[in-house]
Amino acid sequence: MQLKDINHIILTLSPLYSTSELPILTPSSFAKNYLYYLISAKSVHVQFPFYLECHPFDGYIMLYTTEGEGILTYLGEHYALTPNTIVFIDCHQAFRLDLEKCSFWHFDLLFINGSSIAAYFNTYHLNSYCLCHLTPLSNIPPIIHKLLQSTSSNLNENDFIISKLITDLLTELMLAKDADIYHTTNLPKYLLQIKSLFDDHYNEHFNLDYLAQEYHVSKYKIIRDFSTYLHDSPIHYLIEKRIAAAKRLLLETDDPIYEIASKVGIDNINHFTNLFKKSTHLTPNNYRKIGQLEVTEYLDD
Fold first, then answer.
1. Helices assigned H by DSSP within 128-254
2. What are phi and psi of 75, to 5 degrees?
3. Burial class (CB in 10 A: 0-12, 13-18, 19+), 130
4. Residue 49: cis peptide before it, omega within 30 degrees of 0
5. Cβ–Cβ < 8 Å for 60, 68
6. Which helix or strand (DSSP H or E) is residue 99 part of?
7. Vertex 47, ends 45 and 52: CA angle to 5°?
8. pTM of the model
9. Residue 131 in 3-state DSSP?
10. What are 23-40's pLDDT values in tens digits?
11. How do beta strands 10-12 and 131-133 pair?
12. CA distance 72 to 95
């Protein structure tokens, strides 16, 4: 397989973002032979329609989502990239990024490489692990921020600073993976039941007092455990389930907005509109209008 240079690997549909905006760095020969180094780094803000395809090349990517949601297709699997998640991708394999219909996505993209980075990657991907959920106190976002800032300097002595930051990032990612797996595999039974309840009955009305009584735990424990194991609050998790269902109904039916709001469990139309706009940056009407005009053309492209 012939690997390509970074300047020839990315194909993008989005009119709001082009590969020319990627800053291509020039690490020294010493850095390429002995250190971890940064090929490129960018904080990316895109809106629908957007996709990005990456053909095989010699390097690795870390992608950290800050807002919105995208879909990663990698090694035949699909991953939902939601806020405070990070993926570590071997670019010797092709992959694709897609934006959720009519929504937005903000993410930090790092192209990295180094003489022993494959060892970290292979350890990270044991048992097909790919998507890591970070805790609110993770050290990873500040390290990524420093790496993004480092692109403003091309001094050779900066190579050592970048190498240290990437080493710190790889170390923190290994620790975050272990914590994520522990939380996922040790999810309390009652919390799994509440999650399933929200997933299957999001249109019904729940409150913390009812859940506390039903599952014999305090509402404060529910909030704490949701944050620890599912990296979200119970209320926000339920709202996002309702918004996701509303998106499908807006695109797949002609039902009035107030009926869709009621069907997903939100009886107040103004409250529904505010929640929808906060989640998607679009009103329900605009979401439906843009979807009807563009989604079919985009998917057939």
1. 140-150, 158-185, 189-200, 208-215, 219-225, 234-252
2. 55, 40
3. middle
4. yes
5. no
6. strand 95-99
7. 75
8. 0.67
9. strand
10. 778 888 898 999 999 988
11. unpaired
12. 7
Q: Which residues contact 129 (CB under 8 A, 6 or more apart)?
A: 177, 181
Specify the DSSP class assigned to residue 283. -
Q: What is the pLDDT of residues 231-273, one digit of tens each?
A: 788 999 899 889 888 988 888 889 999 999 999 999 999 999 9
* Residues 214, 219, 221, 224, CA torsion sign: positive
Bridge partners of residue 44, in order along the sequence = 107
Measured CA to CA, the distance from residue 289 to residue 301 in angstroms comes to 19
Residue found by looking up tokens 């492209």 in the block: 301
Name the 3-class secondary structure at 207. coil
Look at residue 298 and give its three-state secondary structure.
Answer: helix
In this structure, is the dihedral angle defined by the CA atoms of residues 176, 121, 50 and 289, taken in order, positive or negative? negative
Task: Return the amino acid letter for 247.
Answer: K
Q: Would you say 119 and 171 are in contact if contact means Cβ atoms under 8 Å apart?
A: no
CB 67 within 8 A of CB 45: no
Q: How far apart are CA 90 and CA 1, in angstroms?
A: 14
Angle, helices 208-215 vs 189-200, to 10°: value is 130
Q: List strands edge to edge, sheet with 131-133.
A: 36-47, 104-114, 60-68, 85-90, 131-133
